[in-house]
Design brief:
heterodimer, A: 231 residues, mainly alpha, 9 helices, 0% strand, elongated, B: 217 residues, alpha/beta, Rossmann fold, 2 domains, 29% helix
Chain lengths: 231, 217
C-alpha cells in the first residue's frame, strides 16, 4: 500500500461542512425564518394578552423573551440532523476518517449561526418593545450570546438520540427541556438583576461555565448518539 | 501488500434482524485483487452484511478485522481506505453535482477540487454540473454518487446495489472502472440484482443465507 500522499485535514472538513450547511440553509431560507418568526410572535403577543402596562411588561420581559428564545431554539432543532439522516449523508459522516465529534460540532455551529444569531440580533428590538432599559438590553444580548449556543449544543444530543424514532418530538422536549432550565434561570435572572442595577457577574460565570462544558462534552455525546441512531 | 493480514477479514459473523437469524458464522477474507459478490433474496441480509463490513452496524457475534486489526481500533486507517455507497445515495438535492462531490471529497480526504469536473464528465454529466440535483433524473443522481469512485483513493469499495436505475451504458462504464480498480489491487464487495461481469481478479460469490463461499474464477 502506498503511503497516502495527502493526509485528510480535519480543519478542512470542518470548514467545508460549515460552508455546505450554510449554503443548504440559504437555499431553504424561508424555512429558516420559522423559529425567528415564532420568537417574535410569542413575545409580541404578551402585551396584547396580558396588559400593555409598562411596569408589568418590564417585570415580565426577561422571562418572556428568554422562554420564547428557548422554545424557538427547540423548534429549530428538528432541522439539525434530519435531512442528513434521511439521505444517507450522516452515514458517510460516520465513515469519514475525521473525528465524528468535530464534524458534529461543525453542524451544530452552522445551525447556531442560522438559528441562534438571528435571535440574538432580534432580541434588542423586542427588549425595547417590552420597555427594557438600555443596560438590561445589553445584558439580554450577552446572556443570549452565551446561552443560545448551549441550547444548540445540548439540543443536538437530544436530537441525535431521538433521530431514529418516527415521532421523537415529544421525547425530544422531555429530554432537552430539563437541561435547558439552568440556562433559563441564570439568564433571566441576570437580566432582572441588571435592571435592578445589581452585579451580574455570578450569573454570567455560570453561563460561561455551562457553555464551556457543553462545547467540550456535547459534540462527543451527540456523535456517540448519532452512531447508535445510524445503526 | 503481501502479508497475511492484508485486507478485510470477517470472523464468524452472525447477524439477526428482530428475532430472525439472517446468517450465522459467516467467515471470509477479502484480499487485494478480489471481488466478493453478495447475492440472495430480498431480506436475506445483503445490506446488513455490507453495513457490518463498513462498521456502520455491529454484528451479533464475531468481528471484522482490517489489516489484522479490529476495525474499531483502526478506524482512521480503515475509513481512509473505505468507500461505502449505500442505498441512500448521500446526495443533497439542493446542491449541484459539483458541490455534492466537493463535500464528499472533503469528508473523506482531501479538500482539493481537481478532478471533480473530470469525474462528472466521465459519468456523463457534462453540462449538468451546475444544475441542482433535484432536477436530475434518478439515474443521473446515482451517477453523481458513483462519480466518487473516480475520485477516491480508497482500496476497499463496498457498494450496495450500485446499478439501481443506471442504464446499460453506465453499467458497462462502471464495470470497466471496477475492473481497473481490481487490477490495481483494490477490493470490491458488491451486491446487485443485475449480473456483474468482471473479468479480472479472484471472484467469490456468497449466496445468502448460505454462508459458504463459492469461487467463480
Amino acid at each position: 500500500m502506498s503511503a497516502s500522499t495527502q493526509q485528510p485535514s480535519t480543519t478542512g472538513a470542518f470548514i467545508s461542512l460549515i460552508k455546505r450547511d450554510l449554503m443548504l440553509s440559504y437555499r431553504h431560507r424561508n424555512e429558516l425564518l420559522n423559529p425567528l418568526l415564532f420568537f417574535v410572535i410569542v413575545v409580541t403577543l404578551f402585551p396584547l394578552g396580558v396588559s400593555p402596562e409598562k411596569q408589568l411588561l418590564q417585570t415580565m420581559a426577561p422571562g418572556v423573551i428568554w422562554v420564547a428564545a428557548l422554545l424557538a431554539a427547540m423548534l429549530s432543532l428538528d432541522t439539525l440532523f434530519k435531512s442528513d439522516y434521511e439521505d444517507g449523508t450522516l452515514e458517510q459522516m460516520m465513515l469519514s476518517p475525521h473525528s465524528n465529534a468535530v464534524l458534529v460540532l461543525a453542524k451544530i455551529f452552522s445551525h447556531w449561526l442560522v438559528t441562534g444569531v438571528p435571535i440574538i440580533l432580534m432580541a434588542p428590538l423586542l427588549g425595547i418593545f417590552m420597555f427594557l432599559p438600555a443596560e438590561a438590553v445589553s445584558t439580554l444580548m450577552l446572556t443570549l450570546l452565551l446561552g443560545t449556543p448551549i441550547l444548540s449544543l445540548v439540543g443536538a444530543i437530544g436530537m441525535a438520540l431521538t433521530l431514529g424514532l418516527n415521532r421523537g418530538g415529544m421525547l425530544l422536549s422531555l429530554l432537552v427541556l430539563p437541561l435547558y432550565i439552568p440556562v433559563l434561570i441564570f439568564s433571566a435572572n441576570a437580566v432582572d438583576a441588571s435592571m435592578a442595577g445589581l452585579e451580574i457577574k455570578g450569573q454570567l460565570y455560570f453561563l460561561e461555565a455551562l457553555l464551556v462544558l457543553s462545547i467540550t462534552l456535547a459534540p462527543l455525546a451527540a456523535a456517540a448518539a448519532l452512531k447508535i441512531s445510524v445503526e | 501488500m503481501t502479508d497475511a493480514a492484508a485486507g478485510l477479514h470477517l470472523k464468524s459473523i452472525s447477524c439477526t434482524r428482530g428475532y430472525r437469524d439472517l446468517f450465522t458464522d459467516l467467515e471470509f477474507k477479502l484480499c487485494p485483487g478480489q471481488v466478493l459478490r453478495i447475492e440472495g433474496k430480498n431480506g436475506s441480509g445483503k445490506t446488513s452484511l455490507l453495513r457490518i463490513m463498513a462498521g456502520l452496524a455491529q454484528p451479533l457475534q464475531g468481528e471484522v478485522l482490517w489489516q489484522g486489526r479490529k476495525i474499531h481500533h483502526a478506524e482512521s486507517d480503515y475509513f481512509q481506505n473505505l468507500l461505502f455507497l449505500g442505498h441512500r445515495a448521500a446526495i443533497k438535492f439542493e446542491l449541484t453535482p459539483i458541490e455534492n462531490l466537493c463535500m464528499a471529497r472533503s469528508l473523506y480526504g482531501t479538500t482539493d477540487e481537481n478532478g471533480i469536473e473530470d469525474a462528472l464528465y466521465k459519468v456523463g454529466l457534462y453540462g449538468f454540473e451546475d444544475i441542482p440535483c433535484a432536477q436530475l433524473s434518478a439515474g443521473q443522481k446515482r451517477r453523481v454518487a458513483l462519480a466518487q469512485l473516480f475520485l477516491t483513493k480508497a482500496k476497499c469499495w463496498i457498494l450496495d446495489e450500485p446499478y439501481t436505475s443506471l442504464d446499460v451504458a453506465a453499467i458497462a462504464m462502471f464495470e470497466e472502472l471496477f475492473t481497473q480498480h481490481i487490477s490495481n489491487g483494490g477490493m470490491l464487495a458488491i451486491t446487485s440484482h443485475q449480473p456483474v461481469t468482471l473479468e479480472v481478479g479472484e471472484q467469490y460469490r456468497l449466496l445468502l443465507p448460505n454462508t459458504q463461499l463459492e469461487t467463480l474464477s
